[in-house]
């Protein structure tokens, strides 16, 4: 299934053009392989991240709504954001404008000053992961795989924003990234902190708090013997990657887990080179982890003999 | 208008009406209305003297219609109808004018307006009563046999009560054995009686009772008819065992090579074979072959059971049997199912090995369960040093079930006791409230407190294996806010037991439709009145008992089972019941067969007669709601006792002083009676 090409408006967000270039690089390579094009929103502005909404909500909503208005004007039906924070801001602005009449009125009044306006509900706000999983589908992705990531143990890290304020995926336990990584051939590590907060901007405000949160994530992924962590948000990637040495210093640990974007892993599986996918921009190198990728599918582990004494486990829900 | 003679009685109702409405004036005024033969006022019409007034007047004045202006028909319509009947007048030629709830009680501030309104109401009633027709109730004979659906503790009780009273009972149970969930339990609170010990004698009684025909591994497929006269089609699923030959020796299942996890009786904690008897005390004692897991049905080989059966009782080709029963009453006692705790991923059930549900734990502590009664972790060997019990899993939760499941607090305390008794482990209960309302329950709670269980008032937020603090490595950590001290707590434990909610079965809504009763959105069957009639339903002849009507414990289920039996015995004892004749009738000469009414009927009382191409109302099922009357595009359905003429006449009467005598009030699409 290849969706119509003016179907998606693309909202890159500020991080992707600065600290997280690798995310955009790999995203563009992946969607090119999948035969999609995204139309970047003309003259988009910053989404305000977490700060602006805490300071003054009306200008914050209006700032975000400007992007919605521009995207809608371009004739798109869906607005795709690769960054979880941008996605959340866009999504919640659209949702709350639809829910609260007063907000809708005030925001549209602000937009009118720039000859813009936005009717809530005009766009479907999507996270990049959702577009890839829902609209492309696992079958189409599987077809493009040339070098499955066999033998690589990846911990899928969703971060806390993608399932807010509501989501069709389970809030406590989403599994769509797990599924995607499984299709790519990786061994998916089901680590329990996959929706726990990475600390966000706390790294700038209180490093003790932030580093502790980051430490927990790294420690847990390490306990589960993950070779790498797959992320879907530039903030999460930065916190876990850039601050990993600081965490090690503060807690006297020696974590060495590469933090990769899921699109980088997809690109690898599609046979695209590491350089083209931005692998050299990480602080923690992925070289050692990537060497774990085997040329052959792991042997199907023989079904272990039923331990006569053990009690049966219930099957997990899919 | 013919020579009808109407008697009008205006009640003072003490001060209730007379305090606001000038009842004497109304009675005087009414005397001058056309066709009114006698008009009185009286202090208390519902008293025996008041009723005698009516009876004497009917005889003396040859009254053909009676109007009582008093309270609401909900209060005394039956009273005055009976009075008319005693006087020899058809009770449906009586009309009640409500000048209390509709007038004096709501217009106490303006007595002149209240009196004028009373006149209008009475005028309406006088005009309406002239249009009424005599009606006879429909008599339904009550068949003696009763159908009990569900062989748990509620159904067993109902069946025994009715059978002991000397009447035949058919019991239909879906599983291969009766006993229900109570058969899975170890000990019952608060006495800590062994559940099987108190249940199995009753199961035995049911299995051997001369008046009970037990059909297990069977399901009701279709129900037709009405109270006293139900026709029920039951599918007896093929056990693949010839029960006349089977002795229950057990050679077959001891030889069966196919082992599967037993999801039903062992709640997934143990195994069974493809040919199996659900539990040792099963009634009936015959095994059943699970066609989905039997090697013979998959590959055509094995047949070990057949080879070893000493009486040659295995028949792989046995087919389902359909049985049609004629019963007078039905009692539904289909019970509950446990909430699937995997729906709450933050509690880790299904991912973390040592998280168990309440029913899994019951099977674990049961002496005839998969661990022989030992409390152990999922490895089957290690004893826990600390156990955490999480209350309200799936209950009292807007995301899953709003309701409280009634029994889990007591069960959780029971578990605390059993764990302490068997292992000496530390126990932590995480609760929202401790609900121990019934007899000796609160005392049981105090006993558990004294035994040393730690009760933390805080809904468990999470069960995780992600260790963070010292002492947490290798353990399951339950995180909750301890609201009594206002602090977050992380309690490391070895084993977690989740007190899962009681829910209706997945097919409960479908089952309720099959039996023609209502149910809540979730699927609990709806009782006729939540306070005063908990075992009857809106469908006469169909009763409900036990957890299928709402979460409840064993004593309550037993009580409801007996209550339902008592209601059934009343009907059987009466032998027949009168069904109110206030129902819809379809003029078959003018029905076009459009069938719009068929699906609108909330009581499924309208059937389509193919040969004639018309719809017909079943008088026994019709409750006289009037939906079809209003919906019929050709207006060929009339509501008896609420005909178009009677309604229009009442409206004309109410407007007596505003329209000319010759004017007729019409409504869209109507034709005056003469034109029809």
List keywords for this structure.
heterodimer, A: 318 residues, alpha/beta, Glutathione S-transferase Yfyf (Class Pi), Chain A, domain 2, Rossmann fold, 2 domains, 4-stranded parallel beta sheet, 8 strands, disordered N terminus, B: 676 residues, FAD/NAD(P)-binding domain, 5-stranded parallel beta sheet, 18 helices, elongated, disordered C terminus
Question: Can you describe what's shown?
Answer:
The complex is a heterodimer of chains A (318) and B (676). Chain A folds into two domains: 122 residues, Up-down Bundle (Glutathione S-transferase Yfyf (Class Pi), Chain A, domain 2); 154 residues, Rossmann fold (3-Layer(aba) Sandwich), CATH 3.40.50. Helix content of chain A is 43%, strand content 8%. Chain A contains 14 helices and eight strands. Chain A has a four-stranded parallel beta sheet. In chain A, strand 5, helix 8 and strand 6 form a beta-alpha-beta unit. In chain A, helix 10 crosses helix 12. The N terminus of chain A is likely disordered. Chain B is an alpha/beta fold and 676 residues long. Chain B has five domains: 130 residues, Rossmann fold (3-Layer(aba) Sandwich), CATH 3.40.50; 179 residues, FAD/NAD(P)-binding domain (3-Layer(bba) Sandwich), CATH 3.50.50; 58 residues, no CATH class; 164 residues, FAD/NAD(P)-binding domain (3-Layer(bba) Sandwich), CATH 3.50.50.60; 92 residues, Alpha-Beta Plaits (2-Layer Sandwich), CATH 3.30.70.20. Chain B has 18 helices and 34 strands. Chain B has a five-stranded parallel beta sheet with strand order 10-7-6-18-29, covered by helices on one side. Classes of the chains: A alpha/beta (318), B alpha/beta (676). The interface between A and B is medium-sized, with 20 and 28 residues.
